[in-house]
Amino acid sequence: MNVKHLILIIILVSYYQANAQKNYTTEEGHIMMMTLVDDKPFKAESHKLALYLDYNTKVVNGVLDLKSLSTDNVEINTMLTEEEEPLILRFTGTIPSEDFLSKRHDPINFNWPVNVSYQGKNYKSQFKATVTHIEQGISMSCLISARGQVLVVDTGLDSLIQGVDKTIEVQFSQLVLKLE
Q: Which of 6, 119, 132, 168 has the most CB atoms in a 10 Å sphere around its CB?
């Protein structure tokens, strides 16, 4: 191996290490949705919420395949799993705090505007969110929790689930590790 190759490898490894800690990713986030279907309470949840947090910009991107939702309604479970079209819901929003992952802090409560897209439709929603510091021995992390309502007419879910109410309550929580 010549010197040029060695320098290129060192540069690539350094670049990877410098960029490796700029994003936090999980594909096992928990999300719960509640509404009425035919005037009866309906709850769906998934442990397949993918979240991506950019440590520098504090932008959170979320992706959920609605086919991963689990309910106690056999008909809706079947309909979701047998749907041929992708049922990918995406959202993005910026956490309005400069350094919640770099030091201890009291809970940070804020109104969180998010952009949601589903089936080619884009709309805005607002969630009530909290970032809570969690001490874990020598390491630190934060819990991001959010809850809000989504208008069904904005999503088009009323064409997928017959008898669904006008709004869906959404809530999720995700532990985010401290930037090292």
A: 168
Cα 137 to chain centroid, rounded: 26
Would you give the distance in Å from CA 23 to the centre of its chain? 14
> Residue 91 CA to chain centroid, in angstroms?
7
Q: For the domain 22-177, what is the CATH superfamily, name and number?
A: Lipid/polyisoprenoid-binding, YceI-like (2.40.128.110)
Q: What is the mean pLDDT of residues 31-52?
A: 91
Q: Quick one: which H or E segment has residue 137?
A: none
Domain boundaries along the sequence of the chain? 22-177
Count CA atoms within 13 Å of residue 28 on its CB side: 1
For residue range 148-157, what is the model confidence (pLDDT) as tens digits? 998 888 877 7
CA distance 129 to 39: 28
Tokens read off for 82: 């047998």
**How many whole angstroms separate alpha carbon 77 and alpha carbon 69?**
8
- Summarize pLDDT for 10-34 with one digit per residue, the tens: 554 444 444 445 777 888 889 999 9
